[in-house]
Write a structure and sequence with these properties.
The structure is a single chain. With 394 residues, the chain is α/β, with parallel strands linked by helices. The protein has 17 helices and nine strands. It has a nine-stranded mixed β-sheet, with helices on both faces. β6, α6 and β7 form a beta-alpha-beta unit. α1 runs antiparallel to α2.
């Protein structure tokens, strides 16, 4: 699991970075929140029509009057972070080296509407396991990028940033950092990028671990009755959840895959609108927003608001929907893949995952949601360790 390798960094290509927010930016945000023009709502409708008015109002008021961005900014700036330019795009990343010299390099890839904030609770235990009651053999050097066009990576400025292109950029990032062998973990959109990275850099990627996996891990189209009868009860629940999601909760995907620019005017101009759009996704995956700490949720949201990346992040859905390569059949990958299924929201089904992936590890948990790194970090940490430890034994 722990390739004994030195870390060589091309210092000319890597630029140290710190987050800095001006008072003018904060004053503008406060005024916009204060002047929000609220829509009506049918009494008692809750989340049936979308983000609940009472929830969005309450969270907006907390954001405006109580949330301490300065404190969160300081916490983020305690983490070593850098930027570099790859394929014409700025890429921001956290880079935390382990005190264990034989630690395994591990790339963590977030999804939408997430950010590296998803992984904050994983950093200490994964990089310095002995300080958290773990084994030094489970130590990792962590590289945690913002996907091009997302958050601190800033807006992309040209078309064509698909998940495949992001995978190529991340392969170049790891090479630029001097990592010859490394693992990859990703959830949501990260669970699309990570397996692709395992395909294009199979000689460098020792293993791919995913959660919240969809593309390549679920059926598309009608499931035959014979297959349905052979599914486990948990798999049937996941299939039903997938069907309900596609019917009732898939509107965000349809819009971002077809008309992201039209949507962007509202998300870029209204912080309450951006909050409503993203909290709908936290709630809409079958989770409840209450499972995620509200300060952590708003810290994640601030990285979209302050960087003006609501539009460019949504564009990746459009690029994927209009990329023939994304829908073309893929040859089975030779890279070992591990899957963590969090029963409260995930939809991955093993027989479909095995069609294009070399599955060597499959775990199912009765707690944790689509954002498991945030609301079940202990399970995520344990599963990442178990998967990469198993590669040594295999």
């Amino acid at each position: 699991m722990n390739p004994n390798q030195s870390i060589t960094v091309n210092k000319e290509a890597i630029r140290p970075f710190r987050i800095h927010t001006s008072q003018a930016e904060l004053d503008d945000l406060n005024l916009r929140l204060q002047l929000t023009r609220w829509p009506d709502e049918i009494a008692g409708s809750g989340w049936n029509y979308g983000a609940s008015l009472s929830f969005v109002k309450e969270m907006t008021e907390y954001w405006r009057t109580t949330f301490d961005w300065g404190k969160q900014e300081d916490l983020l700036n305690e983490i070593p972070q850098f930027t570099t330019t790859i394929d014409g795009a700025n890429i921001h990343f956290f880079h935390i080296t382990s005190p264990e010299p034989s630690a395994t390099p591990l790339l963590l890839i977030h999804g939408w509407p997430g950010s590296p904030v998803e992984f904050l609770d994983l950093i200490g235990p994964l990089t310095d396991p002995t300080s958290y009651g773990g084994d030094a053999a489970d130590a990792f050097h962590l590289v945690i990028p913002s996907i091009p066009g997302f958050g601190l990576s800033g807006p992309t400025t040209e078309a064509g940033w698909t998940s495949g292109r992001a995978a190529k950029a991340f392969a170049q990032l790891m090479s630029r950092l001097g990592y010859e062998l490394y693992g990859v973990q990703g959830g949501d959109m990260g669970a699309m990028i990570a397996p692709e990275l395992g395909r294009i850099a199979s000689s460098e990627v020792i293993g791919v671990h995913v959660n919240a996996a969809t593309m390549g891990f679920i059926p598309f189209g009608q499931v035959e009755e014979e297959v349905m009868q052979s599914l486990t009860e948990q798999e049937k629940i996941r299939l039903a959840r997938l069907g309900q999601f596609m019917t009732e909760r898939f509107g965000f995907n349809a819009i971002q895959s077809s008309r992201p620019q039209t949507l962007a005017y509202g998300l870029h101009d209204s912080p309450a609108g951006l909050l409503a759009w993203t909290c709908e996704l936290f709630n809409g995956f079958g989770d409840t927003i209450d499972t995620v700490d509200r300060d952590r949720f708003l810290t994640n949201l601030m990285l979209y608001w302050l960087t003006g990346t609501a539009n460019s992040s949504a564009r990746m859905y459009y690029e994927g929907a209009h990329d023939p390569a994304a829908w073309a059949p893929k040859a089975p990958s030779s890279t070992p893949v591990g899957v963590a299924v969090f029963q409260l929201s995930d939809v991955a089904i093993r027989r479909y995952a095995e069609q294009g992936n070399r599955i060597v590890h499959w775990s199912e948990y009765d707690r944790g949601t689509h954002f498991a790194a945030m609301d079940a970090p202990d399970l995520m940490i344990g599963d990442i360790r178990a998967f990469f430890r198993g590669l040594d034994q295999g």
